[in-house]
Amino acid sequence: MGNDTHNSDERREGYTGTGAGAITPDGCAVEVWTRLPAGDAPEVIEAAVPPGARILELGCGVGRMTHPLVDRGFTVTAVDESAEMLARVREDVRTVRSPIERLDLGERFDVVMLASFLVHAGDEAVRQGLLETCRRHVAEDGCVLLQREGEDWHLNVPRESRIAGTDGLSRILSTTPVGSGVHSVRAEYVFPDGTWTQTFLSRPLTTAAFEQALDEAGLRVETYLTEDRTWVRARPTG
Asked: Against a cut of 0.85, is the pTM above it?
């Protein structure tokens, strides 16, 4: 369906990555993201929104959730700031290349989705921009789906888990306070043919702080969709 370009790739301060292949502005290795499974996210999303909804997916990456959603009958507009990520999205999907916080398509969608813990952006102005983009693009009777970190995400380190369906390991090596409520997180992905790292900034949010941030952007939490409260459905206010 084509790719609309709104901006060039720019390295984000505090975000780095190592390993073979392209590294995105926020330190993600494209090769790693092509290997990571979508997990149960498509099922969570499908159960939370109307059948056949028009979805704006913010931060789609290589399409690991995009493609299962399209296969379930949803119409997805996939947004990412990385050209290398978007190159992996199927040609039957409409893609837009742009930083999320500056996106303005002049359209409204049944569902706006902000996954991958992006709401925990280290820069509060960026976080506000992300949420304002969600509010700007959601229909008045639509909803916003957000994925947030678990309550103990920054406490339970180091930790390691097997990457489902692969022979790889995912590790959170450290999460270090770097001032003003922000942590520098170092992750590592280990596969038989290579090792990749990502260092990124994350701002832990209590439930109250998370809900306040949404409120300031004109959104309110309607329900927590999963038992661990990491997936959230919000609605526009006013």
From this structure: yes
